[in-house]
Design brief:
With 661 residues, the chain is an alpha+beta fold. The chain has 20 helices and 23 strands. Bound molecules: zinc ion (2 copies). One zinc ion binds next to loops.
């Protein structure tokens, strides 16, 4: 009997073949696609490239000017083979096979990818499913020893989402682009997950703009005893400046303070819970990785057998996790860390709040070495190892002390923090706090070196970083662990957002404001939460794909009708915003508007909007963000343009200007 195994990617195929054949598989190519055979050709393993079938509308609906968004909403999408070579290879291999084992990633998307592959075949095969969540020998062997059947309901739930995403994305994108006359390469995209994510950023920016800082004062006493420490007036923030001044006057010249109360308490500090995708990406983001880059590296590490499947919501290790075996492997890579963890081993590993059965939390499964990984890959691998070891290590022990002092009749308070037993903190230093010991005794007199009255202001809510945005997306159920980082990347690529601390561009903001007024649904997370619920119902067999898709279409058409009525206003608002984004000052030759223009080859430069009557133009750097902040050159009158790319600088755009010498 001949067996064909279908994997999600080539790297996984190569590894699974290696494991099942005990290293004896042979690589060959069929139709230019690598595949792996063993047992005298009785087994063949092939890897796909994720989805090899794409969903799109039939060609006749692609004319934006002829098919209205509303009509498009009702069109049934068609499936197209998006990778012909792999499809051909798959069919050829299947001709010689009696049975097919689907061994794609075990999640909704993986089930659909496997089902798409199977559906390309003629239907004469026995189809089985191997489920695993890491490419480790014990797990792979077990998965192939106890195969299951393909779960069509699970695949349908993923397919429903694809259809709905296409419908909302394509129709609203078409509507917004037509309304603002942004066609061709410059179209404005809208998406079921993308738009509510952008709305989060726009709303945060609005909160910041509406924010009015309130001044407050703090009184800080700098004291010394055995060591120096700071104490703050018990009141904390003084909202009344006069009151702060009055008390300051009273304590200003104090030379001593009296310790009225001193308490020291030992507290244990629980280690972090196992990594799921979101917590992993957050931590990686705080180490300077973009979410996209961190995810890509994690996927490579998974494919190469160093870590478990990196797309998971789960934060609880399954009971069967071979912790001892993993530690033995890690011992060769991080001997000291493993030793430290073993010596301070906790009874049970930590556990987080999210528990699901599909995949375990992200953890190391194999030993890597520095020479096999590049620097960034190594940093991610080390992070995952350290997190894993931390979850197995005992609580840290810290001493937290508080003191109440009397300074010239006014109450002051001081706090201390001291790490007594580092335990997991020695392995995972990312959350470590600064130590500042405080050792006092009641009734003791301390020296006051000086007292400061600081004026401060309340601060607006912070802009999101990629890490905090990811967490917010997860909290609002926006996207999946597999797509979140891509969505953020798209928002940058589409020029809807900018900066490391993310703010919306004029266009991003205008698009959200337009949608919010008429199709609010797509800017809010509720829709996604409902869809998630319905996808579960499909997976459980309680609803059909058609029911869910029809429901969603009805809502979409309602939104489109409302938008249609306001089409002109929406178009104007967006065009105005796009103008602002591209405007680089007034032309020195004719008084026209200088705009950022992209040449046919994609290079950007500044040109005058009176072209061809005025041919004034300036070059622009091709990388980074450029903006005009309203200033003109004192030497030649041309606009001053700011470039942000690994730094920020402003200079005259005119290369011949003396200021550029
Ligand atoms: Zn001009
Ligand atoms: Zn100049």
């Amino acid at each position: 009997m001949n067996t064909l195994v279908i994997c999600e990617k080539n790297m996984a195929a190569s590894r699974i073949a290696y494991i099942l054949s005990d290293g004896g598989s042979k690589r060959s190519k069929i139709s230019g696609v690598p595949c792996y055979t063993f047992n005298d050709g009785a087994w063949t393993v092939i890897g796909l490239r994720g989805h090899i079938v794409s969903l799109d509308y039939p060609k006749q609906y692609n004319r934006w000017d002829q098919v209205s968004p509303l009509d498009l909403a009702d069109v049934e999408p068609v499936r197209k083979t998006s990778n012909r070579r792999i499809a051909t290879a798959l069919k050829k291999l299947a001709d010689n096979a009696d049975r097919v084992i689907v061994a794609t990633d075990y999640d909704r998307e993986g089930e659909l990818i496997g089902a798409e592959g199977v559906d390309l075949l003629n239907g004469s095969h026995t189809v089985m499913r191997a489920k695993f969540s890491s490419l480790m020998p014990y797990e792979i062997r077990q998965a192939f020893d106890s195969t299951d059947s393909l779960d069509r309901d699970l695949a349908a739930s993923a397919e429903a989402r694809r259809i709905i995403d296409l419908a909302w994305g394509a129709t609203l994108t078409r509507f917004i682009s037509l309304a603002s006359n942004q066609l061709g390469r410059d179209f404005l995209s809208v998406g079921r997950v993308q738009s509510p994510t952008l709305a989060l950023i726009v709303n945060r920016e609005k909160e910041r703009e509406a924010f009015e800082p309130t001044p407050y004062w703090r009184l800080i006493a700098h004291c010394t005893d055995q060591a120096s420490f700071d104490a703050e007036h018990r009141q904390g923030k003084f909202w009344d400046g006069d009151e702060a001044a009055r008390i300051y006057k009273k304590v200003q010249r104090a030379e001593h303070g009296m310790v009225e109360r001193y308490e020291r308490e030992e507290k244990s500090e629980y280690p972090p819970s196992p990594f799921n995708t979101t917590t992993f990406l957050r931590q990686a983001s705080s180490l300077g990785f973009s979410a996209g880059a961190a995810m890509k590296i994690a996927e490579t590490l998974y494919m190469r057998g160093y870590i478990s499947y990196p797309r998971t919501d789960n934060t609880v290790y399954p009971p069967g996790l071979p912790i001892t075996g993993i530690l033995e492997k890690l011992e060769e890579v991080f001997p000291e860390l493993v030793e430290h963890s073993r010596q301070h081993q906790r009874d049970k590993p930590t556990r987080g709040k999210k528990f699901s059965k599909d995949h375990p939390p992200i953890h190391p499964v194999g030993k890597a070495s520095r020479d096999k990984l590049n620097k960034q890959e190594w940093r991610i691998y080390e992070l995952i190892v350290r997190r894993f070891l931390a979850t197995l290590t005992m609580d840290a022990l810290a001493a937290v002390s508080t003191a109440a002092l009397d300074i010239a009749g006014e109450p002051f308070e001081a706090e201390g923090y001291e790490l007594l037993e580092a335990n997991w903190r020695a392995i995972y230093p990312h959350y470590n706090k600064k130590e500042h010991p405080l050792h006092l005794s009641e009734g003791e007199r301390v020296t006051v070196e000086g007292i400061d009255k600081n004026k401060q202001k309340t601060k607006p809510p912070r802009r999101y970083s990629q890490g905090t945005l990811l967490a917010m997306m997860e909290k609002n159920n926006l996207g999946t662990k597999s797509t979140r980082h891509d969505i953020i990347g798209k928002l940058y690529a589409r020029n809807y957002i900018k900066g490391k601390y993310i703010s919306p561009t004029h266009t991003g903001r205008a698009v959200i404001e337009a949608l919010e007024r008429s199709a609010e649904r797509i800017t809010r997370p509720d829709m996604t939460a409902e869809l998630e619920h319905e996808m579960n119902e499909i997976a459980e067999g309680e609803k059909t794909l058609d029911e869910v898709v029809d429901d969603s279409r009805r809502l979409l058409k309602e939104a489109l009708r409302q938008l249609q009525q306001r089409k002109d206003v929406i178009g104007e608002v967006i065009q105005e915003a796009m103008f602002k984004q591209r405007f680089m000052g007034k032309c020195t030759e004719c008084g026209g508007n200088l705009m950022v223009i992209r040449s046919r080859r994609g290079k950007r430069f500044i040109g005058c909007d009176n072209y061809p009557d005025c041919t004034n133009s300036y070059p622009l750097p091709q990388k980074g963000r450029v903006l005009f902040e309203g200033d003109y050159c004192k030497e030649c009158g041309a606009p001053m343009v700011t470039t942000i790319y690994r730094g920020k600088w402003t200079k005259c755009v005119n290369l011949e200007c003396p200021s550029n010498d």
